[in-house]
Input
Amino acid sequence: VRRRGQSGGGALPPGGPEERFERLFREHGRGLLGYALRRAAGPEDAADVVAETFLVAWRRIDEVPPGSQARPWLFGVARHTLANNARGARRRDRLSERLREDLITQLPADAGQTPVDTPLLEALERLGEDDREVLRLAVWEQLDSDALALALGVSSVTARGRLHRARRRLRRELEKNPNSTQGVQVKALGMEKA
Amino acid sequence: VKNDRSIDAALAAANPLPDGQLRELPLEAAERELMLALRDEGRPGEAKPASRRWTPHLPRLAFGAVALAALAAAVIAIGLGGYGGAGTPAYAAGLVRLAKASPLVLLERPGWRVESIGEPSRLRGEMRFRKGSGPGAQTAELRWRRDNVDSLPVPSAQRPAAIMIGLSVRALVTVYGSEGGRSRKLVAAWEDHGRLLEFTSFGLDLAEFEHRLDSLRRVGTTSWLDALPKRVTASAHGEASRPLAQPAP
Output
């Protein structure tokens, strides 16, 4: 299992910490926001997750892996942030106040309500959190197995195995209940669909 | 759903926020503000920026306790005979430093008042102005941070207007959202002593916004402190449970 921040063994990108952090935010800020919006209870929480994740990245800027590995590293931090936030009361971070406000006003009212495959999403919700997350990371965030490994803090072999099993379980769920639209609430951008 | 590829395709189609939609969200200004705010946060083992030592010691997330202590000291000083001539309170040094950390800008139009202030430091801060109450109330915000106009992200669909405002400076005005829309927001940005100031109003047309911008005035420290809500100083008298920056109930 690779240690975070040391995977890949690449040299740190050029520039001082501030420059590296700005570049990291510029390149991955929007992607991380998308990650958070697809998982958090609402846009306010998503803004806080982005702020908290990048605060960790700033404080540990020397540990952020270079190049394409930075993105899954950030997802890994965000994943822990989301899990911690789910366990405790939400702390509204003043740092993210404007992003929160802008998200509330700018996020299209129909975001998350586009026609979707409801039975599929319901089947996804019936899976365990680990299965659900590995599928979402692979498909929605388009991570390959090495990036999945970094985001999940496991080896590439383990990540591939988890993805394979998660797909199999999702397929089984769909076969068991191909048209079910009952009993499960589907969360999309914090908006629950009955 | 028969194989991995088809299950991935179905899942991709069920993405509640596709990347294309995500990229189109006009959040560049808010993102940059967050990035700069985070960058101003200290890192372990890093000396704080010199400019931070200049400011009153006001932690960002726990503003209330320290600020209240400073204000309490200031108010006590006033209570002990700190009033100047002609009935003008001679504010104590703590409050004056607080004022000087702000841009000392007020919206001087009939009916408008300062509703709240937050995190006043040289590096960043904000003030909210309000006229009226209830659903018909109007609000405006003044934010400042260490930044410059050239770095401002501009929505690709428009060219910001550069207009003169009441402070005799040229401001760059950016409009977000369509006219009459609920998310309509107008932001005027200008530089002031190494800081970027942004004045924001909501739901106005451009002419109304320009009119409002004409009412921004730079004032002295006493006038600025006079304009703060009375509860700010009242809270310093011991209502420590109410954070300074919170709006009135």
Q: What stands out?
A: The first strand of chain B starts at residue 105 and ends at 107. The mean pLDDT of chain B is 72. The two ends of chain B are 55 Å apart (CA to CA).
